[in-house]
Amino acid sequence: MPGSVFTFYSYKGGVGRSFTLANIAVLLARWGHRVLCLDWDLEAPGLADYFRPRLPARPSGGVVDIVDDFRHGRFAPEAHVQRLTDVGVLDFIASGREDGGYVGQVQEIDWDELYDDGFGEYLEQCREQWAAHYDFVLIDSRTGISDIGGICTAHLPDHLVLLFTANRQSILGALEAARRADAARNLLPFDRARLTVLPVLSRFDNREEYDRSEAWRRIVVDETAELYRTWVDQTVEPATMARHLTLPYVSYWSFGEQLPVLSEQTPSADQIGFALETVAAVIACRLDRTDLLAENRDAYVAAVRASRQEFKHELRVSIPRAAFGPAGDLVEELKKLDVRVVKSLSGDRSLLARAEDDARHLCLIVDGKVSRWQSAEVELFLHRTLGQDRRVIPILTQGTEAAGLPGYVGNLRYLRLGARGPAGVARDLVAQLRGQSPLVDAVDVAEVLHQARGARLRPSRWDLVDELVEGLRAAIGAGDDLRTNDLATDLAVATRARPPNGAPRDTVPPATRRSIDWLLRLLDTRAKTTMQHRKDSE
CB within 8 A of 22, min separation 6: which ones? Predict the structure, then answer.
């Protein structure tokens, strides 16, 4: 998939645009993405100051030198890139070199003349190269209405991150700039989708004058509601999304150029790192899956954070205290088979405080019943598993009946800790982990879901379909491929076209459609992940 270009724009200064871009760039890079940042605020550059402690040297070139390359018939945008240290793959193209000649370089640029001479096509080639080499290209644009702003908001981006503060000049000016960009985009000789806009209310202080802050929230939502319609899930209210896209004012971070995301490793809800993580997660998802964000923000961010995570452990074994002995023997046998395994004892509260898991799969030792702690552990694991190839694997002790267990465990493929002993169970478990096929046959299940989405059925049959779809959500989320295929087969039969018999037929109910759409997105994500794993292993 080619990378996505996001321009960060504000109509007025002082909204924290460069601060937001720099911190989000660091988050995306730390989460495993390849990121390129460009400082296109040529008349008031400042992005380098946020990155300076991690730059290998002072910038010796940048955007203005890309213009100079065009004038001299050179094409080498990579020559002006610097790699930051200790934050993953985060590259930076400054506005230009930091010397006395920079101002003159900027003043000599005539953008209209450049475009007349073919600079638009040249810049398009640069954009294609950036999109091919990076997952995300983040552009810091100049404020106000300008030729540079037009390049950054209309020509280059796939998405526009619109930052503003709680005053009408900032809001209405930003909205007008977005409308201008959308209109100018339609005139471009390049193939572009419609510009999607991510509105971000910045530097918002709701700790003082609460009533006034809530009144301004309503004003912001009323003014920006139209921007959400092109990308937010129809089940999510603009007011809900607007709260997730609000950056609080924290006076501590208003001094100097700072990167709080480096010091706030697991931020609480009242810290700015928490809000920055949310916006970064929306960008990482390319403005998709907003229904999941509205449902559970922490799970949404955790899933995005871990989507490219290299897990420290291959398996976490959840051990009830009653089965400590045989479970401990199982762990030792797994270690002999070179499985990176870690124990989890009931009541280990350190699990709840972690921002993300450190083990890919969860093995649940069940002795008689699933304890309340294990139920919470499974729920936490599944919440952190959105869109990822991870499994819950139950192992039942002798005498534990699967039929008496909750569906989210009893319906899974399980192993039995019995006559074969820990060594035999360890071998079976390794066979599942090392030789497993993809969690579901995404193509077949997706076809059945599409069939269901387009079916016309009697109302009573839609009730059955809804039950099957909800069963699929649980089975796919838990990684139970056998149960998934059984349910998909039943769903195919239930939604198969039948000859008309005079009874009224209805299209898919909205709630069922939303569940089907969620599953299709999840299957698509897993199919892409599996394909990428195969490419990486070749």
Answer: 37, 47, 50, 51, 257, 259
